[in-house]
Amino acid sequence: MEFEATIGLEVHCQLGTNTKLFCGCTTLFAQEPNSQTCPVCLGHPGTLPVLNKKVFEYAVKAGLAIGCDIQKFSKFDRKNYYYPDLPKAYQITQFDKPFALKGGIEINIKGNKRVVKLERIQIEEDAGKLIHTADGSLVDLNRAGTPLIEIVSDPDMSTSEEAYQYLVNLKKILKYNEVSDCEMQEGSLRCDANISVKPIGQKELGTKVEVKNLNSFRYVQAAIDYEIVRQIQDIQNGNKISQETRLWDVDNGVTEPMRSKEGAHDYRFFPEPDLPPLILTDKEIEKIKSTVAEPPLKRKERFISELKLSEYDASILTEEKPIADYFENALKEFNKPKEIANWISNDISSYLNEKKIGIDQFPVSIENMTSLWKLIDDGTINKKIAKEKVFPLLVESNKNPSEIIESEGLAGKNDSDEIRKWVEEAMAKNQKAVDDLKNGKDKAKGSIVGMVMKASKGLANPQIVNKIIDDIINS
Ligand SMILES: [Zn+2]
After folding, report:
1. Are residues 195 and 241 both part of a single domain?
2. Which of 360, 380, 408 is the last residue of a domain?
3. CA 90 to ligand 1 centroid distance, Å
4. Final residue of a domain: which of 408, 426, 441?
């Protein structure tokens, strides 16, 4: 019997507000344990939550960017359970009336474009963290009350590759819209995967297993692949798949049972009595909509169709919004997309990687960078010298490149008489190359050009050098 898998993903994304969801505590990472807390997020009796409006704004922006139907009425609910990292013994979340429904994320598997559908997005608070030591377990509540959105896809994927792309593209959209830093190492983006298998063609879905603890997209992919094989083998061995939550064991590359899965009724959801419902007007939705960034995939397609860039160049330029912005701002000053793309993906990227910084910290202003490109373009300086000599000085000083060229004596030599002298000297020293050239062996030209470049310290204009050699040989 042949089987097929059904996969749905739940992504928890920390919204990038400075303060928590229902109190004024900061959301700073890696602080002294329990230093970012107050009676509200510690769950003291008698305290009342107050909604951080910025959270709602970021959440709606994320929902709009993902193409969701934003709900004008939504509300908060209590999800009741006891755990040491949850001092209130309930989590404030959204149950039957989340703020966003539907929407989707585009994926492209080997040229087949399609949209993975979303079920919903809800706003909720994070719990604290347990730290297990040899002497016992410790509780750090700095994260308690941190604002999250949970993005729930439909069970609309069937391979780990689709899941991986879904996550990559979702993350890109969230980062483009600056609603989250999406740092997986810091827990800003976490993913649970629901996986089931069924005989091909069967309508009814198989029993689903939820895999938690997936803090990298590659782990998601590996855990899905592992689960699909495990479940198919189990069924083939005559066993029943039990509905359970499993953990991904990074070291051994396997999933391990964690607990049997609770149903919604186990949580005794009920409306949060201390918070009013969330009401949005069309005008407010429109206002937030106007701040949503152009979708990264659309931008990439535009770079290909309008600017005639290759798929490869367009991918690199749209990988991160600040790079795409730098590129487009530079383009306004210097209208040669392919040239700029080459500089960004080679020289500039190497520099950023070496310094481990983003393009937003790149020290050269767009004005100075484009000035350099214009000086190459009009022949004031040759490209090799620009890359090897001027660019390193430019990133150090962010000076006007004309000044650097002037003070370092790096301007290209375009004076025909001067170049002719170098050519004649080179020919005098290399009679064999001259004879070869006269006999139609064009390859011999290289050695003469090389000698001229050496004599001129790389500054002679190569086009003029070539022309003068041709003139002499043909005369
Ligand atoms: Zn607090």
Report:
1. yes
2. 408
3. 16
4. 408
The tens digit of pLDDT for each residue in 188-228 reads 999 999 999 999 999 999 999 999 978 899 999 999 999 99
Distance 20 CA to ligand 1 centre (A): 7
Based on the fold, state whether residues 242 and 303 are members of the same structural domain.
no
Give the mean pLDDT of the chain. Answer: 94
Q: What is the pLDDT of residues 168-177, one digit of tens each?
A: 999 999 999 9
Alpha helices, DSSP H, located in 398-444: 401-408, 416-429, 431-438
* Domain count within the chain: 3
If you ran DSSP here, which 8-state letter would residue 387 be given?
I
CB under 5 Å of ion ligand 1: residues: 23, 25, 38, 40-41
Residue 170 and residue 104 share a domain = yes
* d(C-alpha 79, C-alpha 64), whole Å: 26
The reply to whether 37 and 108 lie within a common domain is: yes
**Using one digit for the tens of pLDDT, what is the confidence trace for 292-326?**
999 999 999 999 999 999 999 999 999 999 999 99
Domain that holds residue 459: 416-474
CA distance 14 to 16: 6
